[in-house]
Amino acid sequence: MLKLSRIALGVAALACSLTANAKLSVPTFEELPVLEPEGIHQTACTRTANSFIRAHYKAIDVDNAFADKVIKQYLYYMDYNKSIFTRAEVDEIYANRDRIVRAILLCDLSYPYEIYNSSIKKRFNKYSFFVDMIKNKKIDLTTDDQVEFNRKDAEFLPDETALQRQWINELKNDYILQLLSDKTPEEASKRLMRRYNAALAKLSQIRSEDVFSVFENSFATAIDPHTSYLSPEDSENFNDNLNLSLEGIGAVLTSEDEYTVINSILPGSPAEMCKKLKAKDKIVGVRQADGSYEDIIGWRLNEVVKKIKGPKGTRVTLDIERGEGSQMTTFSVDIIRDKVRLQDSEAKIEMKEVDGKKIAVLKIKSFYTNLHQDIAREIARVKKEGKVDALIVDLRNNGGGLLPEATLSSGLFIKQGPIVLVRDARGNVIPQFDTDPSVAYDGPLVVLINRLSASSSEIMAAALRDYGRALVVGDTSFGKGTVQQSKPLARVYDFNDAELGSIHYTIAKFYRINGGSTQLEGVSPDIFLPAIIDNKEFGESSEVNALPWDKINPVAFDGYLNIAAYVPELARRSQERISKSRAFKIIQADLDRYYALKEKKVISVNLDKRKKMKKEDDEHALKSTNERLALMGKAPVKKVKDLPDDFEFEDNILNEALAIASDFADAQKLKVYDAQPVPVFNRYQVERDELSEGKGTQSPPGAAAMPARPEAQRVIENKITSISRMDSLNDSGKASAAPDMSTAAGAADAQAAMNRTGGGAAGAASAAHDKAAPAAADAADKAILSAAVTDSKEKAEAPAMASAAEDEVIHHTLDGQPYSRITATGEINNMDEDGALLGPWRTANEDDTFLRVSDSEFKALLEDSARKSTSVHLNDSLYPSVWPRDEAVASKDNAASGHIRLAPQH
Predict the structure, then answer these.
(1) Which residue among 123, 361, 613, 892 is least enclosed by CB atoms within 10 Å?
(2) Contact 419, 433 (CB under 8 A)
(3) Can you give the pLDDT at residue 857?
(4) What pLDDT is attached to residue 696?
(5) Which residue has the higher pLDDT, 258 or 319?
(6) Are 466 and 526 a contacting pair, CB within 8 Å?
(7) What's the CA gap between 852 and 62, in Å, rounded?
(8) Residue 340: pLDDT band by 50, 70, 90 thresholds?
(9) Kindly report the CA angle at 531 between 530 and 532, in degrees rounded to 5?
């Protein structure tokens, strides 16, 4: 879902603007505003473009192809349901893509404003058409017409006749929804008249800043969905949200077409406490405690926010529409405004008993300041009260929070080591470490996630899984693996008082310690539980222009368990329980019905047919509700609405996670599957980033990803001395004979591997190691090291001979690619051929030049990383590792399954 603006509701009573309080006056067509850019927009546009083009993680080329993306976004914001522009008009806009390029690069905003002014007139025609039909009572609900209720992905309609036909059916659908919500025909007509007249009145209140904001956000979201421009007013609201001292309902709102939509709900907020609101709910009306009511469809988002804000302790009633088509329902929610603080939802542990075992459930709703301290305190409390057989970390619906807290909280379950890798737009990879060797809990651990587990939640789940510390269960997580920063557009040297707003853009990506990104694909559980959230509606993969998944080299870390060894039996038992569970069968039936109805793109606008559909829906919902109540030992209800406001069904997902945790604890008592050893030379055999390989899905174009590897011969010369010092290379004859120490089959496998891949001696020795008996693992490591040096020398000699023949030196990287001063993305390579760092990255931004990382800071980072890891960006990610071998890694062969292997101890 695309976000035009995100505003967290809150704070203290703000006086509503005069325009919001005054009676709305419907303008005539001639009174509609003709908007033009303001003088300050030239400055804001220039600075926004410079930041997005030069400092964003994803480098862009503002060409015709990119202009088409911007146009698509612009049309989305103006005509979400594709019901005001015809196909010919849209084609004309695309034909003028060069004027969109001018608007971005030269800030000639005349054409974007021209398009938007046209959209105002078209919306005026649409709403006026609705009003006339209601006045003239021309709504016929006896025909067999249908309406395409969600046209977001549909084609634009061919002409005005088709548009009017769509409008008629849209109005019929709105009228039917009112009747199905127990309104009389007169009440339905009156309410819709008020709605559309309000929408007409709001057209006259559109400001130049609104148009500028829509266009700049079209530019932003054409890059990636988490990049945005915030107007001065939106920036103020955003900063209020960061203070976490707001008074309101605690919902984050977005604007979609004519609707105000709940994007997310803040933990610990009144909106969460009422237990009635969900993401994707549409707010269609707001009623104050004094009885005054506003139908807010068509309102600007800022005006909606002002209506929902209010003093602490006062009541606000929201009219909500949920779902689409035949499954759309309407209801009202009363909320008492209160302070919104994430800290009000502290992490808590609740003890559960399963099969005689004491299992702790740690619920984390967000990653707030000092979360790790609360977790440590809760763990200490329950351990003091008695034995804890297993612990579940419940990260469901946790949208993330502070990165340091994700690092520190994960560190409570391991001794120490890297938690997550952060790569910036220039390819600098900085590991985030847990440096505290203490462990708060070292017993059986399960992490429970769902589709709404995002960002920091994914970091924690991925880290504990990659270490082999935790079993992950639930559903695939959200897939947000990017880092954003906010930046005001104002400068200290500005000589005017005009407000400029701010920008929010992506500057880095998160990577797991095994090298894979959490972006787009999220974290996949070891054991899948029934998904009760629509994965096509929620998640990064549903976002337009989301950054792709990719990978970088892993880092070294000390592993714990081979989790994959436990999964088959645990998954079998879980599936057996689920297949026999009546509760899960009911849930699955509800989901099947939901998806079947969702697949129907159209819905009847015949009142009798819709009443029949509603009756069927109500009967199904009541039957499902009473069946679940019976399983809980509760009395049935006559209507679903009879359930108490705070009623919650039994958490069947958590119950299954508890059963899995119990089985996991038993399994570890029976047998401990330790992390498996891997030869040192296989440690970094994960395929290089596609950008370095020059194939596949390329990393974001400005990321320069990993610098090209230095030319092979120089690496060999620099490293051969240190390699030769190792005991495994004292006798090359012994090393070459190492495969025989396994079995004849092992030697045959090694030869077969060499024949298949052309991998030379190193490939054969590596294959032999996989078949080697544990006692021969060390000898096989020696063989691989020796064979690899031989292979490297052969590879280095070949280009050298060719160079002599051509009388020209052509340097090559270790993977055979020609070394170039210019990388595949057009960046200057920051490595010399021998791997020497040429200097810190620099980039121009607007009218000044700055260092991404200063020389002194960069040097300090390198030295600090070198002390902590054997896989620093400038060390082991460039050369095969010859460092000490007692760390755990994820190798190419086992990366997919998540296996962790430990190198042999000496």
Answers:
(1) 892
(2) yes
(3) 52
(4) 33
(5) 319
(6) no
(7) 23
(8) low
(9) 115
Tokens read off for 326: 């035949």
> Going by C-beta distance under 8 Å and a sequence separation of 6 or more, which residues neighbour residue 190?
none
More confident residue, 477 or 496: 477
Which uninterrupted H or E stretch holds 357? strand 357-363
Q: Of residues 24 and 130, which shows the higher confidence score?
A: 130
Give pLDDT tens digits for 389-439: 999 999 999 988 889 999 999 999 999 999 999 999 888 999 999 999 999
| Cβ atoms 759, 816 nearer than 8 A | no
Nearest to 879 by CA among 705, 728, 714: 714
Listed residue (398, 538, 557) closest to 465, CA to CA: 557
Catalytic residue (one of 58, 69, 480, 551): 480
Q: How many CB atoms lie within 10 A of CB 160?
A: 10
Is the distance from CB of 446 to CB of 390 less than 8 angstroms?
Answer: yes
Distances (CA, A) of 748 to 17, 739, 763, 779: 82, 9, 13, 17
Q: What is the CA radius of gyration of the chain?
A: 31
**Active-site residue identified among 281, 344, 466, 749:** 466
| pLDDT value at residue 24 | 62
Task: Report yes or no: 296 and 283 within 8 Å, Cβ to Cβ.
Answer: yes
State the Cα–Cα distance between residues 652 and 184, nearest whole angstrom: 40
In order of 18, 288, 303, the CA distances from 294 in angstroms are 15, 9, 11
For the record, the structure tokens of 121 come out as 């007139």
Question: Distance of alpha carbon 235 from its chain centroid, rounded?
Answer: 22
Residue 532 pLDDT > 90, yes or no?
no
Contact between residue 400 and residue 367 where contact means Cβ atoms under 8 Å apart:
yes
H or E element, residue 19:
helix 18-21
Residue 136, helix vs strand vs coil: coil
Which of 601, 596, 610 has its CA nearest to residue 148? Answer: 601
- Residue by residue, DSSP assigns 169-197 as HHHHHHHHHHHHTT--HHHHHHHHHHHHH
Listed residue (504, 512, 509) closest to 548, CA to CA: 509
pTM for this model (two decimals): 0.70
Is residue 160 scored above 70 in pLDDT?
yes
Hey, what are 809's tokens? 């030196």
Residue 698 has pLDDT above 60, yes or no: no
312 burial level (CB within 10 Å; 0-12, 13-18, 19+): middle
Catalytically annotated residue among 119, 235, 455, 786: 455
Q: What does the pLDDT look like over 762-819, one tens digit per residue?
A: 344 434 433 344 344 444 444 433 444 344 444 444 444 444 444 444 554 434 445 4
- In angstroms, rounded to a whole number, what is the distance separating the alpha carbons of residues 256 and 282? 9
Return d(Cα 348, Cα 769) in angstroms, integer.
47
Q: Could you confirm whether 480 is annotated as catalytic?
A: yes
First to last CA, the chain: 53
Residue 542 buriedness (CB in 10 A; 0-12 / 13-18 / 19+): middle
Question: What tokens were used for 673?
Answer: 């599957």
Torsion angle of C-alpha atoms 651, 655, 658, 660, degrees rounded to 10: -120
How far apart CA 156 and CA 135 sit, in angstroms, is 28
466 is catalytic: yes
pLDDT at 828: 40
Among residues 115, 58, 61, the alpha carbon closest in space to that of 85 is found at 115
Name the nearest CA neighbour of 769 among 802, 744, 801, 746: 746
Closest by CA to 452, choosing from 421, 476, 429, is 476
Residue 30 CA to residue 194 CA, distance in Å, equals: 22
Rounded to 10°, the helix 64-78/208-221 angle is 130
Range 689-715 burial, b when 16+ CB lie within 10 A, else e:
bbbbeeeeebbbbbbbbbbbbbbbbbb
5 CB-side CA count, 13 A: 32
Q: Which residue has the tokens 């709305």?
A: 24
Which secondary structure element, helix H or strand E, spans residue 52, and what is its range? helix 39-55
